[in-house]
Amino acid sequence: MTVAPGTLVLAGTPIGDIADAPPRLAEELAGADVVAAEDTRRLRRLTQGLGVQPKGRVVSYFEGNEAARTPELVEALLGGARVLLVTDAGMPSVSDPGYRLVAAAVERDIKVTAVPGPSAVLTALALSGLPVDRFCFEGFLPRKAGERLSRLREVADERRTLVYFEAPHRLDDTLAAMAEVFGAERRAAVCRELTKTYEEIKRGPVGELAEWAAEGVRGEITVVVEGAPEKAEELDADELVRRVRVREEAGERRKEAIAAVAVEAGVPKREVFDAVVAAKTAQKPL
User: Is 68 helix (H, G, I), strand (E, B) or coil?
Assistant: First the structure.
């Protein structure tokens, strides 16, 4: 007799206040055949707080054993088990263990579902005061300074709001690197200890936030950074010359017209000046 495959359930857990746990979380914890937890000690505190006792087998599933344990959990799923995956906080797979197991389950046509729960990414976005209509999540930046700068340069022109996780002891270096790459005036928000007793949202230019963080910061950190400003329209030499001509005809001196057009186009004054000189040499009307 063929056994129908079970179901993999990804369950969101509170990022701070246990009262934020979704109602279905307790039901899934009590009824799962296998509970795979990033930290079994934290799982124990969670179940005690929710007043529930898992009936199924509890196993650890963290970065160090994720690759080795995934086949074991897939076998349980193929045998009809309901496997519940929980991490320390938030949704599995989002900068936490889970991706390998989900990918393996999908490959074997095993049903994967979720118990939606709190998200540090969305909570920080909502509290940041920055645009939230379009955003991208960048996870943790590399620990090494050179690699961190390279990663930031990759998104220096990204128009969408950026969201990062960061360790408190690296926050000042990360914000300083952001100020170097994005510019010290780029707006950002550091969201610390979200939904916990000492929740704090620090908003301001990234350069100022770097100075603040240098004094030392504790807790779980999510950083939200404003997207890059819209680039000025790229104008060819003929258009630069035309705009100078329009301003001159309106009464501006050529020097002031060149300076104004350079600001409009977001290019050096020399570039506009050279275009005007080239046009004059070629006997193009100014």
Answer: helix
Rounded CA separation 190/86 (Å) = 26
d(CA 216, CA 202): 13
User: Between the CA of residue 166 and those of 79, 173, 207, 228, what are the distances in Å?
Assistant: 39, 10, 17, 21
Mean pLDDT confidence for 140-157: 95
Q: How far is Cα of residue 61 from the mean position of the Cα atoms in its chain?
A: 23
With 0-12 / 13-18 / 19 or more C-beta atoms within 10 angstroms meaning exposed / middle / buried, residue 133 is exposed
Distance, in Å, from the CA atom of 109 to the CA atom of 130, rounded to the nearest integer, reads 40
Which SS3 state, helix, strand or coil, does residue 80 take? coil
Closest-CA residue to 206 (of 227, 184, 221): 184
**What is the tens place of the pLDDT at every residue in 186-236?**
999 999 999 999 999 999 999 999 999 999 999 999 999 999 987 666 788
What mean pLDDT comes out for the span 123-130? 97
The phi, psi pair for 152, rounded to 5°, reads -65, -35
Smallest CA-to-CA distance from 285 within 252, 232, 253, 238 is with 238
Give me the chain's average pLDDT, please: 93
**Which pair of structure tokens corresponds to residue 22?**
């979704």
Cross-strand partners of 113? 9
**Which residue type sits at 149?**
L
Burial of 233 (0-12, 13-18, 19+ CB in 10 A): exposed
